[in-house]
Amino acid sequence: MIQIYHNSRCGKSRNCLAFIEKSEKEFEVINYLTNPPSFEELSAIIQKLNIKPIELVRQKEKIWIENFKDQEMNDKQIIQALISNPILIERPIVINGNTAIIGRELDKVAAFIL
After folding, report:
1. From CA 47, how far away is CA 8, in angstroms rounded?
2. What is the pLDDT along the chain (114 residues), one digit of tens a residue?
3. What is the CA radius of gyration of the chain?
4. What angle (nearest 5°) sits at the alpha carbon of residue 42, between those of residues 77 and 81?
5. Is residue 16 flagged as an active site residue?
């Protein structure tokens, strides 16, 4: 089943969700702002995305700039910062089996879920 880590206040996330709804594929919406992933869950998502934790960070967010930008952080510390401040997680994340993408571009989402 497809999963989408969704933020309803984000236009890209809303567009991605609407696209997945139209695909008629079975999916689950996870509102990660109210239900943030655990350390283990986020680590698994990062692995499925095949990226470094820092690549999942919305580095232009005020919280990141004010609290983390100039700190030297290891991967575990970055993941913990994301869990403590889920608004920092890049979105939407679309998971299909053992792989995932950041679904900001609908053509990539289409190729990924179809």
Report:
1. 24
2. 999 999 999 999 999 999 999 998 999 999 999 999 999 999 999 999 999 999 999 999 999 999 999 999 999 999 999 999 999 999 999 999 999 999 999 999 999 998
3. 14
4. 30
5. no
- Locate tokens 């139209």: which residue? 22
Query: What do you get for the CA distance between the two ends of the chain, in Å?
Result: 12
pLDDT at residue number 114: 82
* Torsion, CA 17, CA 22, CA 25, CA 30, rounded to 10: 20
3-state secondary structure of 27: strand
| Ramachandran angles phi, psi of 70, nearest 5° | -95, 10
Report the C-alpha gap between 16 and 109 in whole angstroms. Answer: 8
Which one, of 81, 29, 31, lies nearest residue 56 by Cα? 81
How confident is the model at residue 67, as a pLDDT? 97
- Tokens coding 12: 């890209």
Active-site choice (4, 6, 7, 10): 10
pLDDT at 16: 97
